Amino acid sequence: MSADSLIDTVRRDDPDRYLAALFAPETVRARLWALYAFNAEIARIPASVTEPVIGEMRLAWARDAVSDLYASPPRVRRHPVYEALAALRGQSGGPVQDDLAVMIEARNADLGEGAFPDAAEREAYVDRTSGLVMRLAAGICAPDWQAGEEGHAALIAAGRLWGYAGLLRQFTRLCAAGRPPITGQELAVSGASLEVLRRGLQPDKALLARGGLVDAARGAAAVLDASRKSLPAEIFPAIGYVRLARPVLKAAARQTNPYAPAAQTPLILRQLRLLGASLTGRV
Which of 71, 92, 231, 251 has the fewest Cβ atoms within 10 angstroms? Predict the structure, then answer.
């Protein structure tokens, strides 16, 4: 796989991050795509296997590949994603081994079934997946940035907003896979069951069960709104795509059937929203 093919992979598997990365200088852009390609590589593992044990083996391979990458001397697996990731090793602001290990371990949750134990676990999952990717990307874009308390809060909130929006977008698929993005308490209060959600039944109860997820996304959006002015323009390529989460949240709030497929926003409209966000700073 050539560098162009790797970029094509990011464009296909992670189109919104790809679009935001286009606002970065060329050298920074290449580093962002290396990170995003790695994230896409491990994120697709759970969906590509029929047995959890196979997914665990593939995640273990990824963990070993990262360990090799940070060994002394480093050993780079003959794999385009890890060859691209090797270029980030030792770079100012680049991820450290523990960061990448956390990203891998977080994907083990995608191999299981059942609701989240509680809202704190759901939040932790979002922080370890979309949130961590965003924080690492911000470090690549602005290695010398000292976030401070408000900047840190804004970055965390942006990652959570994107993560919760992703769970909303994938609600039907996740329910069908037996791991709805709701908590056990939300499920109990709704009167639904895992089997009901898996089969796409009782949309009124499913909508009630999903309410906590919508509220969590709104909460993250409110924190981001209150603190986004602390985010420097140079990290826009790392976070700008969170602007595209807001229409997802608005659409979810209007839905009467949470299983209904979400309308796909045209590419040109997504590009225009990113351009507007880059000019105004309103992510």
Answer: 92
